[in-house]
């Protein structure tokens, strides 16, 4: 198989979808690997490392798309890439289709095969290619939230963990999945008062058992969320419905109950966001203010820590990529039901129901 790894061109996206180690394994098995020049620099891998692993370096993104049967990426294609994707070309990356109708329509038009990292399932129903980046994003949400609570950054001016004699910040985490548990652990470790909300009672029981004493679990409802808004310092949106648009748990009207200088970090923004006032931002311009509340809504948060993120991501994605390379995508999906669930758009047709539902298609 001919596999291409282009350089990511989304704002401040420094991750890369293939490491030199992955290239070496593919080349040893007889596959051809094309890597765009500079693709790995942001993650600490120069072109020479890829050449030593047997990859061929190509100068432009156009060259990589034109020569490759399979494209492996980190983030969804952006508008300038849409016309580079060919009919029957296989694209393996995060897509998050439900949050972008233009992307969905472009991939339908291309008649390519789009397999999304975020909807691949393990036998136990977990999402193995979403987990590593969710772990990074959950931890980063607290780092960034603590940073933007500082007065010079526009926040209320509170130290997350407080000090002796001064109470700590209050953090509300919406969602008890991977992002939520990582955010709660980080916030608790820094000494914050943490409230973790979810609608799954079994999950709440488990989290109550394993998380520190300064994390309180609460059933998620509009009433219970509203009760916390007037005294919360930091809210982390960590809601996930696999492949579908996230529901709005905090509306614009509810936001008015929060204090000026409080902060929201919506990790769900790449699936439309679970806070109505959120919209995707970039690492270059990460925040905006609505009704006095500072919003941090960077859609590729793990891209800020590319060394950690690239290794965590490729550790998870590479075994699946190897199956695809060895068998072809159709046979690989036939043999692996969890991988098949990653198929979202195939030759002009949406094949993943939550994406179709998001746009009434």
TrEMBL record:
Domain Alanine dehydrogenase/pyridine nucleotide transhydrogenase N-terminal: 4-137
Domain Alanine dehydrogenase/pyridine nucleotide transhydrogenase NAD(H)-binding: 149-297
Binding site for NAD(+): 134, 198, 203, 220, 239-240, 267-270, 298-301
Cellular compartments per GO CC: plasma membrane
Active site: residue positions: 96 (proton donor/acceptor), 270 (proton donor/acceptor)
Alphabetized Pfam families for the sequence: AlaDh_PNT_C, AlaDh_PNT_N
Binding site for substrate: 15, 75
Reactions catalysed according to its record: L-alanine + NAD(+) + H2O = pyruvate + NH4(+) + NADH + H(+)
Keywords, in A-Z order: NAD, Nucleotide-binding, Oxidoreductase
Keyword match Ribosomal protein: no
InterPro entries: Ala_DH, Ala_DH/PNT_CS2, AlaDH/PNT_N, AlaDH/PNT_NAD(H)-bd, NAD(P)-bd_dom_sf
PROSITE patterns: ALADH_PNT_2
GO MF, one example: nucleotide binding
EC number: 1.4.1.1
GO BP, sorted A to Z: L-alanine catabolic process
Family label: Belongs to the AlaDH/PNT family.
Name the record gives this protein: Alanine dehydrogenase
Species the sequence originates in: Neolewinella aurantiaca
Lineage: Bacteria, Pseudomonadati, Bacteroidota, Saprospiria, Saprospirales
